[in-house]
Fold these 2 entries.
Entry 1:
Amino acid sequence: MRDVQFLLVEDDDLQGRNVIRAIQKARITNRIAWAEDGMEAIEILNGCHPWSRVSPPLIVLLDLTLPRMSGLEFLRTLRADPRFQSLVCFVLTGSDKSEDIAAAYDLNVAGVIEKSRVGEDFRSLLRLLESYWTVVRIPGDH
Amino acid sequence: MSPDHVFEKRPKAMADAEILLVEDDDFEAKTVIRAFSEARIANRITRVEDGVEALETLLGDWAANLGEHKLILLIDLNMPRMNGIELLREIRSDPKLRRLVCFVLTTSSSEQDIADAYDLNVAGYVVKSQAGEDFRQLVQLIDDYWTTVRMPE
């Protein structure tokens, strides 16, 4: 059985918990790491976080508005590092500013998802993640 | 091959959504088009046979109203003249095309191809054998993608 991991980067406690619960409930995976901002996410990816670990195949779910290191800064850091250049990232955002969306696509995201459009219990987000993981081969997925 | 039969049904919703299928094999192309047509989700699929023809379409006939469509490219890798990776390289280096949403659709599951494709900013790499019977799961993915994802403008 192929097993995917998620890294959720989200500063809002309630939102984060809801996304994780929804993913677990949909049984896409139980292996979800949660970082509260870009810095913490980088620590986790680098393997130097005190208790959180991830390994490929990995999909990042990224909020854009975050303290310390914003979502776009985080993406810029990832894309400049050959180890994380091809990491699959979806943006999950409350912002519908078209310059943010364009900037995210320029930084190689698989898709930008507006929180206002995911429906009750993140239903359409989960449907997308489920069919994405069913069909798409990502780096590190053998 | 004419995509006209896709037009006829004028399928549900998905206004302004369009697919450019870049595939040199006639049979494969027909199967993909039929899958979308049966699911009645695509407004229009245009099929071209290789990277050269894809660029001609994008930069020629379609250049004027590229931004008005939710366009998804499905790109085969092994094609004559210009292959899928070369096409992606051209797309990513052209300011008018670089944000286009591209999925790879291929029989190859080589790690090198997968890495090259993601380095060129593909939204997803789909191995045909994993796309479901008659590409049904691929169609589902594209439908879910359109429904949920805010595409670049």
Entry 2:
Amino acid sequence: MTLHQLVDSQASPAQVLAFGVTQRFGKVAALTGVDLAIQGGLITLLGPNGSGKTTLIRCLATVTWPEGGSILIDGLDARHESDRIEIRRRLGYLPQEPGLAKRARVFDVVDYLAVLKLHGDERRRRHLVYDALDRVGLADRATDKVGDLSGGMRQRLGLAQAILGSPSLLLLDEPAAGLDPDERFRLREIVSGRRHQATVIVSTHLTGEAAVSDTVLVLLEGKLRFVGSPAALAATATGRAWLQEHEPATARAWWRQADGRYRCLGDPPAGSQLVEPTLEDGYLLLTPRTVASPAAAAIPRPPRH
Amino acid sequence: MSSGSPPIDPARLDRNWRAISIELDAPRPSPMERMLRLVGFPSRMTRLVVATPALRRSWFLSTGLAGFLSLLTTGATDPREQLFGLLLVAPLVPVIGVAMAYGIDADPAHETAVATPMRGIRLLLTRAVVVVTFSSFCMALASIITPNLSAMAFAWLLPSLGLTTTTIAAMTSLRPRHAAVATSTVWVIGVLSARAGSSDPLAAFTSAGQFVMALVAVAGLLVTVARRNKLDLLPVRS
């Protein structure tokens, strides 16, 4: 049995239950009555900036306690001290800003986290650190300074910290933000590879990242608006995506394709040329009109003539 | 029974080679870490200390402030006035050091650290012990070079402990920097008031004053333990 197998055999995906989770910051409601029941697989938490993704991830990571409702990880409640420690033993967490010290060595950064994860024995720690670095393709950079790594490598280093010791719950907050397509692909491969050993929750505002997941959660204005597979999210737009030659008058959102035609979302006029909906179509149609403006603004608008 | 050599399990061979290469390739601890291990600190503790840039900053600060205080005390003419300056400022060195060694403002990896099974209180107290030990050592050196050396030159020790534990207790409600500013302000006002109300500039550092600071130290520790759960969370709206 290899070290990988030895570590993996100890892990089984964590069960995450949330009941009416509510969090406010002053007058702003970051989360409102979020209910959730998931175990295993790759789960993408999709939503625009400011929709409450980070707050929900932080609540699940036990670094913030929700004002209302409760969260149970494998039946454990983080409000109880002993439960909290046990949850954190099973947790791998990559926050939006992992705060990696640029002058530290790659090995030391992960080893530091190994100590925080209570791996006391130095020799075992060394193996766990190399195992994690190996998984993210950084074992040969162990003695390099963090400052010498590219942005994508640093993100993978943060991921190495998160997957150290094969946690059964892996929470990654916007891990792909700012990465080039190559690095995004590598990161996706690594994260995707953990879906059988852990419940992996990845927050993102990029719909393309959700396509490879088992389950998509759409969070809008602090409320969970959709839970289901990527195919089911795309299917919500069935009959509501069409192509036309001219700029639409009534569509919820539209953009001009490379072939010059307009792809439109909303209620199609009679006789429209309906098309196969995508995950992005489903997501955009879920977005309420009040927050549709910034989302729609990100879509290339037709040029004004 | 087979007459050939026993078969080699390739997976086991791989595992052994891997273990050997990890032992060979793992980077050596830094000189500072090796030095700490040499004086008896366990490896997991030295890693907590050395891997934190914030902690290194507070070390440099302690050394710098101790040096500054040494200059300050040697520059004054009245020995008791010299001592007053040292005793007023010395207890603030670990307070500032602790505030700079923990929390979201000081440690960029704080959020990652909070989400680990190592309790916030354990991490904070580990760093506080290191900071207080180091700053006390520096301040002791500064005290030794004061003119007319007496036991009074070390009267900052209990106030240091009292202010540090109070600051840590305040950190369960406030951000570390705010906690340090609040504690330091109360301390400076208290000592200056005691001085204004007495002909002895060192009135605040007599046995009675030391007893009060010992009580403050214990109270600070008790409050910290009672409110330790707060150290396991990020500050609101971080």
